[in-house]
Amino acid sequence: MFDRAVHPIAFARLGVAILHIIEGPVGAGKTTYGATLGRKLSMPPLVLDRWMATLFRADRPDADFWTWYVERKARCIEQIWKISKDLLDCGHDVIVELGLLKSAQRFALYQRVDVTEHGYCIHVLEAPRDERLRRIKQRNETQGDTFTMIVSEDLFELASDEWEPVGAAECKGRNVLFVS
User: What is the spatial distance between Cα 23 and Cα 176, in angstroms, rounded to a whole number?
Assistant: First the structure.
């Protein structure tokens, strides 16, 4: 095994495929950042919200949305991981944006990668809550390239309250880039 807190360029020099994990609270700019990173690295990011919108938008209930969402999110994350692992095993770097709001969810992903011979880099996007809400409102209105679904203020507040910032324990021994 190798030191996980190695810069991504060093992984590339070692011939190690890297999983780029993009995380942050709702509205922090993860999808835009992932698209930019994808263009730089010549790979499309695997974005949970796109999967959810494509597979389940038509089935979205009016009530009890959060329970419905969490069940489907878990299934999509499992499939995204399987595809990511296959690509990594073939020597390809992978970018994922999974919306892992809780540190326990992120630790579970890190543990999955830790048992492989692949490297990973965690890209944590940060922005003030009021700025994130402004972005969400603008995205809802313009429905541009990063739009997948309407995010209501209530959903924004719920997801923002659920977000657990990446702390020292998550950073220890890992390659973490904070982006604001």
Answer: 11
pLDDT in tens, the chain (180 residues): 344 445 555 555 557 899 999 999 999 999 999 999 999 999 999 999 999 999 998 888 888 888 888 999 999 999 999 999 999 999 999 999 999 999 999 999 999 999 999 999 999 999 999 999 999 999 989 888 888 888 889 888 989 999 999 999 999 999 999 998
pTM score of the predicted model: 0.88
Q: Which domains does the chain have, with CATH numbers?
A: 8-179 (3.40.50.300)
Q: In whole angstroms, how far apart are CA 36 and each of 76, 80, 83?
A: 23, 20, 21
DSSP calls for 31-84: HHHHHHHHHHHT---EEHHHHHHHHHGGG--SSSHHHHHHHHHHHHHHHHHHHH
